[in-house]
């Protein structure tokens, strides 16, 4: 889904309202935003569950992985398909009057989370906010290679300034832990995923750590 800054920029450039939609290549459309701002599930033909790493439904108000059962597929069964996306359900009734259930927020992929050195699991936004508004930084990607090493790729207008790199390192260490090695690497461009999507955060730690926490 687009964030608030992206929505404002698109609306300003094109002079029209922007509505979020959520879906997947395999699952198809899962939710659409109505004019009142509610993210309604397409519950006429899909069943959406939010589950923990063991596939158990999470309590109301808690984040869980979106699992989809499609009721309209004809070619093959599509039952409890794990999307890899994390969301929270909304128990409010929307002002638009539709009775369809809603998603309160879509937090991102399971690998969009990072893990601090002390084991704390946090959303990648904690690191994204460090870089998003830095002058001269046009693009970036945060790659958590291990619990004690994170690499941050940045595309800049010119040479990467020493004070900018230092700010990135110290700010990231303040969130991940002072003992974490943070490597800032300037690159000419950052390629999208094979799917064509762009990922701001890729963690090779978060998924495994989430399973460990669930087993504890």
Commentary on this structure:
By secondary structure, this protein is of the alpha+beta class. It has two domains: 4-109, Luciferase, domain 3; 116-215, ANL, C-terminal domain (GMP Synthetase, Chain A, domain 3, 2-Layer Sandwich), CATH 3.30.300.30. It has four helices and 13 strands. The strands form three sheets. A seven-stranded antiparallel sheet has the order 1-2-3-7-6-5-4, with no helix packed on it. A hairpin with a 5-residue loop joins strand 8 (113-115) and strand 9. The chain is globular and about 55 Å long. The relative contact order is 0.13. Residues 209-216 have low confidence and may be disordered.
Write the layout of secondary structure elements.
Elements: H1 4-14, E1 21-24, E2 28-33, E3 39-41, E4 46-51, E5 64-70, E6 81-90, E7 102-109, E8 113-115, E9 121-123, H2 125-131, E10 137-146, E11 149-156, H3 162-176, E12 181-186, E13 201-203, H4 206-215
Parallel strand pairs: 10-13, 11-12
Antiparallel strand pairs: 1-2, 2-3, 3-7, 4-5, 5-6, 6-7, 8-9, 10-11
Helix pairs in contact: 2-3
Comma- or semicolon-separated keywords:
20% helix, 13 strands, 2 domains, disordered C terminus, GMP Synthetase, Chain A, domain 3, seven-stranded antiparallel β-sheet, four-stranded mixed β-sheet, Luciferase, domain 3, 216 residues, alpha+beta
Give the oligomer, counting copies of the same chain as homo and different chains as hetero. single chain
Going by CATH, the architecture of the largest domain would be: Roll
- Report the order of strands and helices: HEEEEEEEEEHEEHEEH
What fraction, in percent, of the residue positions are helical? Answer: 10-25%
| Order of neighbouring strands in the sheet with most strands | 1-2-3-7-6-5-4
CATH fold assignment of the largest domain: Luciferase, domain 3
Largest sheet data: 7 strands, antiparallel
Task: Assess the beta-strand content as a share of residues.
Answer: 35-45%
Helical segment count: 4
CATH class wording of the largest domain: Mainly Beta
Mean pLDDT over all positions: 86
What's the number of extended β-strand segments?
13
What's the Cα radius of gyration? 19 Å
Uncertain stretches: 209-216
The structure class reads: alpha+beta
């Amino acid at each position: 889904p687009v964030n608030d800054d992206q929505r404002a920029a698109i609306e300003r450039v094109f002079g029209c309202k922007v509505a979020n939609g959520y879906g997947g290549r395999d699952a198809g459309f899962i939710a659409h935003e109505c004019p009142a701002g509610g993210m309604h599930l397409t519950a006429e033909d899909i069943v959406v569950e939010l589950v923990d790493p063991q596939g158990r439904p999470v309590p109301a108000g808690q984040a869980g992985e979106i699992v989809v059962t499609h009721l309209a597929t004809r070619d093959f069964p599509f039952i409890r398909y794990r999307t890899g996306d994390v969301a929270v359900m909304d128990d409010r009734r929307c002002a638009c009057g539709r009775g369809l259930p809603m998603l309160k927020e879509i937090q991102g992929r399971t690998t969009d989370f990072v893990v601090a050195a002390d084991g704390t699991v946090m959303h990648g936004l904690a690191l994204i906010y460090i870089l998003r508004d830095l002058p001269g930084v046009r693009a970036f990607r945060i790659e958590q290679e291990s619990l004690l090493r994170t690499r941050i790729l940045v595309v800049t207008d010119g040479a990467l300034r020493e004070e900018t790199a230092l700010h990135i390192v110290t700010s990231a260490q303040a969130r991940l832990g002072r003992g974490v090695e943070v490597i800032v690497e300037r690159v000419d461009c950052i390629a999208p995923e094979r799917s064509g999507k762009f990922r701001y955060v890729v963690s090779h730690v978060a998924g495994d750590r989430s399973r460990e926490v669930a087993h504890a």
